[in-house]
Amino acid sequence: MQLAEFLIGSIDSDGFLRSDMESVADDIAFSLGIECTVEELERILSIIHHLEPQGVGARNLRESLLLQLNLQPHDTPERQLAHRILESYFEEFAKKHYERLISRLGVSEDMFRAAVQEIQHLSPRPGSLYADDSSEVAPYIIPDFILDVRDGEFDLSLNSYNIPELKISRHYVDLIRNMASSEEQKSESDKEAMQYIKNKIDSAKWFMSAIKQRHDTLMRTMQTILEYQRDYFRDGDRSKLRPMILKDIADRTGLDVSTISRVVNSKYVQTQFGIILLKSLFSEAMQTKSGEEVSSYEIKNILEECIATENKRKPLTDEQLMDILNERGYCIARRTVAKYREMLDIPVARLRKQI
User: Fold this and answer.
1) Among 17, 195, 240, 284, which is least packed by CB within 10 angstroms?
2) Rounded CA separation 306/324 (Å)
3) What CATH number does the domain located at 285-352 have?
4) Cα separation values, 258 from 142, 250, 264, Å
């Protein structure tokens, strides 16, 4: 029971046992002072494999899917074929080499599609249903800037939520004035106290000045971004985003590029159409055949549109996507298409294929 509890405690939130048995055996010997063999742990793990949720305690995705499938009756040809695919052709299946698999298995396309659907009904993360997400704090974004539109004019302000107003305590200011104006002979300790308070007041003033300078830099940068992307901020239409890099804003503000980079990093602006990450407003410039500069966002939108409407049985390759963009007047290379596709978290054509 101690070994079983240790094994269960080693299962991650996805339901997988990521450590190899030799390492688990070493951990048990060190933590519990119990010597055990890999064979003994394998026997106990095989019992855990029959617990809920189905597929729990597997070492990898293939093993988990097989465990889930084996706990179901193999009473249909589709399930039998699904078991054969996972058992013998998992790599080809994961890479979606469907035509090759249909040929090797000697089955019809309809039968293969039915087997794939059986596999898709299984859970790739069996532990997710039981994972406690309460400890994971949902990200709550407090915007750094607030942008309102009043009577067609922009009203930009720095969000001062939860930021107290800084000021020097009157008590210490009056104290140092009284000590300075006193005509009595000051002792050495009084002079040291007076100098100490003066140093602290000077440090506080410097700190307040630095905070004000930071606020001025933030507002100056955001105001420049607003002027640069004025058309976009009116209605939030991403197609109106102009190509913009850090140097463009640095040149207009007179600040260093590294300063602009720090200002826009992890900063948000609240607009009438949502909260926007400042860094997402920056994009490379692409040139059309007519010589016009457009934002890379425009290219990404076209890529998303093409991939959304493609034939999923024959997805568009990066080469074909490049040809479509070139036909529309955008000068773009295949490797750039691949880069933008990856930035959009869209897999390659082979992995988008559906049977």
Assistant:
1) 195
2) 9
3) 1.10.10.60
4) 24, 9, 10
* Mean pLDDT computed over 59-71: 92
Give the chain's mean pLDDT.
86
Question: Which helix (H) or strand (E) covers residue 165, if one does?
Answer: none
pLDDT the model gives residue 135: 47
Instruction: In whole angstroms, give the CA distance from residue 97 to residue 355.
Output: 10
- Helix spans in the chain (H): 2-9, 21-31, 38-48, 61-70, 77-88, 90-94, 98-105, 109-120, 170-181, 188-228, 230-235, 246-253, 257-264, 296-308, 318-327, 334-343, 349-352
The tokens of 103 are what?
Answer: 């040929």
Inter-residue contact 16 to 64 (CB < 8 Å): yes
pLDDT > 70? residue 185: no
CA 124 – CA 204 distance, rounded (Å)? 56
Q: Are 103 and 70 in contact (CB under 8 A)?
A: no
Between 313 and 122, where is the model more confident? 122
CA distance 14 to 61: 10
Spans of all domains in the chain: 2-128, 145-281, 285-352
CB 299 within 8 A of CB 325: yes
CB–CB of 154/269 below 8 Å? Answer: no
The pair of three-digit structure tokens given for residue 87, joined into one six-digit string: 């058992």
pLDDT digits over 133-181, tens only?
Answer: 544 555 678 899 999 988 888 999 988 776 778 888 888 888 878 777 7
Residue type, 87: E
Element (DSSP H or E) covering residue 332:
none
Rounded distance, CA 232 to CA 227, Å? 10
pLDDT greater at residue 313 or residue 233: 233
Dihedral sign, Cα of residue 72, residue 76, residue 79, residue 83: positive
Question: What are the angstrom distances between the C-alpha of 71 and each of 58, 79, 83, 111, 114?
Answer: 14, 11, 11, 22, 19
